[in-house]
Amino acid sequence: MMRDFTMLGPATSSNESRKSSSDRASRPARTQDSSNDFVELIRSLFQHPSAIAIVGSCCAPDSDTGPDSASFVAEGLAAELGSTGNRVVVVPVTKLLRMNPVILSERSAFLPGRDPHVWMWPASFGQTLEFFECGDSRGKGDWLDSLRRNFYSVVLDCPYVEGMPGVTEVAAMADAAVLAVEAHRTSREQIQRNQQVLQVRGIRIAGCILIQER
């Protein structure tokens, strides 16, 4: 199964999400045929060092169907950002929320991503790791401040907002959020519900990205 990115506005209907776009590529974050809308989204969100939450719009698919919507978009976004030479860190929020407390040590381990200039945090032991001097974070939110000081872009890979407690609290720490919408799986009602949940938390929604399956 292959997936495509298409940029949507802040709100979309289920019928709109079924429309195809001639301006898309199977992996736009990794090719020269990247969707213009996708690249424009990146430019608008990352005009300066930023932390952006990519939020899943529906429950994650079964494990055998590949990464969920937020993870897929976060990976592509990080690859595009890393191609500019700026350091990027992707934070899988599901893994982050299992940490208690969430602390970055003065010398923290990061897992190198598949693309240049991209790292993952938190990182598991036993893998090929790289270390950065991040300072000691002890207060709420200090881990994000530490990441901001070491990386130009912080991409928060957030699961479905109602699928795990604490997701909206982490997303609210970002500068903005983007909903990852899956064609033929995410209804208009679900998108609107997700928007309402995020807006109640004071989260600025920059837009939606449609993921097509073909």
Description:
The chain has 214 residues and is an alpha/beta fold. It has a single domain, classed as P-loop containing nucleotide triphosphate hydrolases (Rossmann fold, 3-Layer(aba) Sandwich), CATH 3.40.50.300. The protein is 26% helix and 25% strand. The protein has helices at 36-45, 69-82, 93-96, 142-150, 167-171, 188-200; strands at 3-8, 50-56, 88-92, 107-112, 118-120, 130-133, 153-158, 176-182, 205-213. A hairpin with a 5-residue loop joins strand 4 and strand 5 (118-120).
Detail the topology: elements first, then pairings.
Layout: E1 3-8, H1 36-45, E2 50-56, H2 69-82, E3 88-92, H3 93-96, E4 107-112, E5 118-120, E6 130-133, H4 142-150, E7 153-158, H5 167-171, E8 176-182, H6 188-200, E9 205-213
Parallel strand pairs: 2-7, 2-8, 3-5, 3-7, 8-9
Antiparallel strand pairs: 1-9, 4-5, 4-6
